[in-house]
Design brief:
By secondary structure, the protein is mainly alpha-helical. It contains seven helices and no strands. Helix 1 (about 1-25) runs antiparallel to helix 3 (about 50-70), helix 4 runs antiparallel to helix 5 (about 105-125) and helix 5 packs antiparallel against helix 7. The longest helix has 25 residues, at about 1-25. It is a multi-pass membrane protein.
Amino acid sequence: HRRMWAYIVAFTVLPHVGGLIGWFLNCKDTPMWYERLKKPSWCPSRKIFPVAWTVLYTGMGYASYLIWNDLGGCNSKAIIPLGLYGAQLALNWAWPPFFFGIHNLKMALIDILCLDGLVIGTMCSWYRINKAATLLMVPYLGWLAMATCLTIRIWKDNPEPKPGKTE
């Protein structure tokens, strides 16, 4: 019973690790740079993002535990469902360094578009295994839809300076 709780906690905490590392690495320069960007009126307040990501990472982490548990751990049946989950998590963790770290809006856009596809693929692969786990990913997919639209809009509204030109 104690071992089961250790797995639940580990799976649930794992997504937060990359989020916290990304925040820690990018928190110093982010506020000034981000505030200068042209953003749409529907852009959420910066204060909402940590709350949203805490809830979303917790849900997706617990969902991944449910899948892992239902498949009997890491085995051949788990390769695709957990592999897709791991790949989407890696892209999720890569977005902040692209966007906030190196201010590469185009790479952030490419990353989040690929992330959207991987999350949909993950959910499709999970549906037959555990519908509750799939449903736990729905808020994440909804938030990603908004974040994708926001990334597209910020990319379009904040063109990169042409080489040789200064602002």
